[in-house]
Amino acid sequence: MPADQPTVLVVEDEAAQREVLRYNLEAEGFRVASAGNGEEAMVLLDEENPDVIVLDWMLPNLSGIEVCRQIKTRPETRGVPVIMLSARSEEVDRVRGLETGADDYVVKPYSLRELMARVKAQLRRARPAAAGLRLEFEDIVLDAETHRVTRGGQELKLGPTEFRLLSTFMEKPGRVGSREQLLDRVWGRDIYVDTRTVDVHIGRLRKALGVHGGEDLLRTVRGAGYALG
Q1: Which of 34, 45, 184, 229 has a CA-to-CA distance to 12 between 20 and 30 Å?
Q2: What CATH number belongs to 7-126?
Q3: Domain with CATH 3.40.50.2300 in the chain
Q4: What is the pTM of this model?
């Protein structure tokens, strides 16, 4: 399973519907984690670090609205896009869902093709590199589709791990990524890698970015991790 494969968390209490969503999302190239209730969703949120959440409004015990509210009030998860699914089609319900923090609102019954398009649209906003887009920061340009990186117009040679590291930093410039977060995003949760390995690859990325000169844009934040810019 590729480390940079985007993850979608599906929160849906109907098992059959959950499997339909899983099948279609996996066919579109996503890794899928799924929960049958709100409590399980909150646990998986920390374990899976999803890129997009597809969340049903009507859940047992902890409602989808409450799950969404909790996601959006936590600093570490508030930036994860939430697509709310609901049989409630009234404008007042749609407004309530969006005011709770949902990034999109889809009324049941929905078209699977449309839902897949909406998931991809949210992914482009949250993780442009995973969507194959071009990223720019200062004089660095990263083309996720062709896997090319240039700085000041000159091409840089980056290994696959350094490329994924740079993609992660360029998606959220200025944001500090801890070694654990970088391990999850770049190497994947299923692979055991020592956190010191992150430091080694940061060193390689630093060297590659500075091969033609220019200031060091990678910042080491003592006790916290690394950031770009």
Answers
A1: 184
A2: 3.40.50.2300
A3: 7-126
A4: 0.69
